[in-house]
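Example 3.2
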Amino acid sequence: MDGIAAYVGHERDVEVEAWEGIVTWRTLLSADRTPSAAMTVGSAEIEPGASEQGACHHHADHEIYYFISGTGVVYLDGVEEPVEAGSVVFIPGNTRHFVRNTGDDILKLLYVFAVDRFSDVEYVHEVETS
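Structure, written as tokens:
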């Protein structure tokens, strides 16, 4: 996109992307899609019983998760912490991490990166899970 401008978007208007069987997400702010810069924001959903196989990953960029609904566990370099609606998680760059839904409802979260575009984040997927 050309330029930066005030912007209002709606989650319902954004295409759903997926790691099949693990997580679905919508990139809400990304400089290649919206007139934004320096931040990438999206929402993600993890279904009850979703696979963890292939979910563990890391990237050089710091990330924030803010949990909107559901219950789960976040894995951070071998340590698991419970999360629920209202939980916030700071993930330092290169920290191995993933989220597991431990409830009966969809686990929904907001994610934030301090990068211009979602495509700027280089994911490294790992075989290891908890």
